[in-house]
Amino acid sequence: MTRLLLGVTLERICKAVLLLCLLHFVIIMILYFDVYAQHLDFFSRFNARNASRAHSFSNSSRPNAGAEAPSPSAKPSANQSATEKPLQPCQETPPGLVGRLLIEFSSPMSMERVQRENPDVRQGGKYTPLDCLPRQKVAILIPFRHREHHLKYWLHYLHPILRRQKVAYGIYIINQFGEDTFNRAKLLNVGFLEALKDDEEYDCFIFSDVDLIPMDDRNLYRCYEQPRHFAVGMDKFGFRLPYAGYFGGVSGLSKSQFLKINGFPNEYWGWGGEDDDIFNRISLNGMKVSRPDIRIGRYRMIKHERDKHNEPNPQRFTKIQNTKMTMKRDGISSLQYRLVEVSRQPMYTNITVEIGRPPPRLARG
Fold first, then answer.
1. Which residues have a catalytic role annotated?
2. Does 233 have pLDDT greater than 50?
3. How far, CA to CA in Å, does 128 sit from each of 116, 137, 161, 247, 302?
4. pLDDT score at 58
5. Cβ contact 293:225 at 8 Å
6. What is this protein for, i.e. what is its function (predicted)?
7. Section 198-216 average pLDDT
8. Number of alpha carbons in the 13 Å side-chain half-sphere of residue 84
9. Residue 336 burial (10 A CB sphere; 0-12, 13-18, 19+)
């Protein structure tokens, strides 16, 4: 009798384990096909749109009518047909967004591949939607030194995302010349001025580290009524905001918001502190930081070792406490640098600058 009861009990346990395994398998398959379906839906819409354009092209009696990517030198004709409908403003939520994205860094990446994948991007890393009028003109600024490997992946993912978001944009790599201590915030100040020299119509500025890739294209790279912090949940922080005042990774300010806070501080040499100073500047000027939903504002970081000459800044905590006293004199109004070179590459514009070195520390005694 005891053996019979034991056998029945073991049979029930086995059935329960089998059911749990089956349930786990079903959940995994649902999640997999959810992501797969989103990608399939996007590519279906993409193919249908291309087929429609090809059909209109073949039926048109005028050369280049309905072409997706005219040559950069092509200009609209002064005597266009009066029956052509004027372009409408791009939708607030672009219809071609995919949603969650599969981000990985194991596949080999080359700049040639990035160029093949983005034939509509113009020299210098610029793009403008052809089927609607973008609401803003966005300059994307990346502080940079010795990160060519990361840049390839960043361009590989971000160009398609930005095009789906119907953004009129230009990508600027702000490359620090020499091997002195790195200064992220000062490079971004330089990028702000140099981008406006290149195109004075920029009214929105996105500041992004080169090793951060958004995991959802619904995280729209544009400016808002309040300064925007895009990188809400990084994988290195467990997809959580590390603390309420965090403003690092990827952020965005309109031209007027940036000038209101006197830009970014120039005196944070080395790693850390400048993003907290920027958060303080925003708060002290009566603005609030806006963020996307935590489920949309997720990012993957390309793993790497700490850069040489970008060691943690031991003075950062003292400086953060003094933002109120320093922000009027330290910022875009006091920026000094030497422009070394501007090089317009197919997928981005490289701006190499010399920004000096940190002042010598006073000896304690």
1. 209, 211, 271, 274-275, 301, 304, 306
2. yes
3. 18, 9, 13, 28, 28
4. 38
5. no
6. Responsible for the synthesis of complex-type N-linked oligosaccharides in many glycoproteins as well as the carbohydrate moieties of glycolipids.
7. 98
8. 12
9. exposed
Residue 103 has pLDDT above 60, yes or no: yes
Residue type, 263: G
Region for 325 from its dihedrals, namely left if φ exceeds 0, alpha if ψ lies in -120 to 50, beta otherwise: alpha
Whole-angstrom Cα distance, residue 335 to residue 345? Answer: 26
Residue with the bigger pLDDT between 319 and 200: it is 200
Copy the structure tokens of residue 202: 């920029």
Give the bridge partners for 299, in sequence order: 214, 234
102 by Cβ neighbours in 10 Å (0-12 / 13-18 / 19+) ranks as exposed
Backbone φ and ψ for 197, nearest 5 degrees, come out as -65, -40
